[in-house]
Design a protein that fits this description.
By secondary structure, this protein is of the alpha/beta class. It contains nine helices and 17 strands. Helix content is 29%, strand content 23%. The strands form three sheets. The protein has a nine-stranded mixed beta sheet with strand order 16-15-14-13-7-12-11-8-17. A six-stranded parallel beta sheet has the order 3-2-1-4-5-6, with helices on both faces. A two-stranded antiparallel ribbon has the order 9-10. The relative contact order is 0.17.
């Protein structure tokens, strides 16, 4: 690469700061412009970055300096903004999910293919040492043939800490659409694509109360299922049990466990990049901690964007749109199964993403 790839960000909300800190550390990327529905929020977000220009969305899309658009809008706007970027001939990396529905996500894939641009999608947490060390342990045969996995996330809901949690309870939100991408992307990375799902879901409250910020005490409507559980049947034959909920005070269960014919792995929280991977060998009582052996050390949100812009032409990046579409399809099928009370076939598929070798932290 002759120069860093110029990044234009659309959406300067809660997650923006994490991406900016990563972009500062990644030599492949350079932030040049931002846009937001609220221009004052955009100006505040880049205070201290005089080289970054605040533009309108239309201006950012038309700016010839911008090589790749980082889409950090709310889920309901993901497809619209990504399609605008694709129509402008720019590569795009989007926050998860790829779109609010698979129908919109399919439009994104078609448009990107026709325009010859690349699209990637969060989460990129699976590129860190946590999930990648577990992936290497599986690939190295430390637990034998994987047979089953569990993935569990239970919290009280985001209204307890987020000042504007409305979109978490609107279509495209909920525990499955919000947190499911982390867990399901990790499961696909570890065990491969999914062919069938069986789901169940519930919604216990019609309204939630914001607990912090200027809107404290305000009630917001709940339009999505707030507890979703199900079984994912992987093409490999492994079965994953998924539990995603905004209805629990806490859980002591490991975020992810993978069980094989010769042992079990405890995999760290897929919402984080690192964490300890534990191995229990068949016939031994104690768990052992595996040293970090794969993945990006000290990674932050944005490493998937760097992976996108450095992936050779014609190859899918590790946090690519095909994987993101498959994860979204799995989630939609889970909800469809829960409402129809029948097993649902997942018609999409993807290649198991390429592993990440051990990568020291950027200086």
């Amino acid at each position: 690469m002759g120069r860093p790839v110029n990044v234009g960000v659309v959406g300067c909300g809660f997650i923006f700061g994490q991406y900016v800190r990563s972009i500062e550390r990644l030599p492949e990327l350079r932030l040049v412009a931002v846009a937001d529905l609220d221009p004052e929020r955009a100006k505040e977000a880049v205070r201290g970055y005089p080289e970054v220009e605040v533009l309108s969305v239309a201006e950012l899309m038309a700016d010839p300096r911008v090589d790749v658009v980082l889409n950090l809008t709310v889920p309901a706007a993901h497809a619209e903004i990504t399609l605008q970027a694709v129509a402008s001939g720019k590569d795009v990396y989007s926050e998860k999910p790829l779109a609010a529905t698979t129908a919109d996500a399919a439009r994104v894939l078609r448009a990107a293919a026709e325009a010859g641009v690349r699209v990637g999608c969060a989460p990129d947490t699976v590129l860190g040492t946590g999930t990648q060390t577990a992936r290497k342990a599986i690939d190295d045969g430390l637990i034998g043939r994987p047979v089953a996995a569990t993935a569990i996330m239970l919290t009280p809901g985001h209204e307890g800490w987020h000042p504007n949690p409305d979109f978490y309870y609107a279509p495209g939100g909920g525990p499955l659409m919000d947190m499911g991408p982390y867990y399901i992307t990790s499961l696909v990375t570890l065990l491969g694509p999914v062919t069938t799902v069986i789901g169940a879901a519930s919604r216990t409250r019609a309204r939630r109360t914001i607990a912090t910020g200027p809107r404290r005490g305000e009630e917001i409507p709940v339009a999505v299922d707030t507890h979703v559980t199900g079984v994912l049947v992987h093409a490999s034959g492994a079965l994953s049990t998924l539990v995603m909920g905004f209805e629990g005070a806490a859980t002591g269960a490991p975020p992810i466990e993978v069980h094989g014919e010769r042992g079990s792995l405890s995999v760290p929280d897929p919402n984080h990049f690192d964490g300890s991977v534990l191995l229990a060998r068949m016939g031994e009582e104690d768990w052992e901690t595996l040293p970090a052996a794969a993945g990006h050390v000290g990674a932050g949100r944005g490493v998937g964007l760097a992976d996108l812009v450095t992936t050779p032409a014609g190859r899918e990046s590790r946090a690519g749109a095909t994987l993101a579409y498959h994860v979204l399809d799995i989630m939609e099928c889970l909800l469809s199964s829960a409402h129809s009370r029948t097993a649902v076939t997942v018609t999409s598929t993807c290649e198991r993403p390429q592993p990440v070798t051990f990568r020291p932290a950027p200086r």
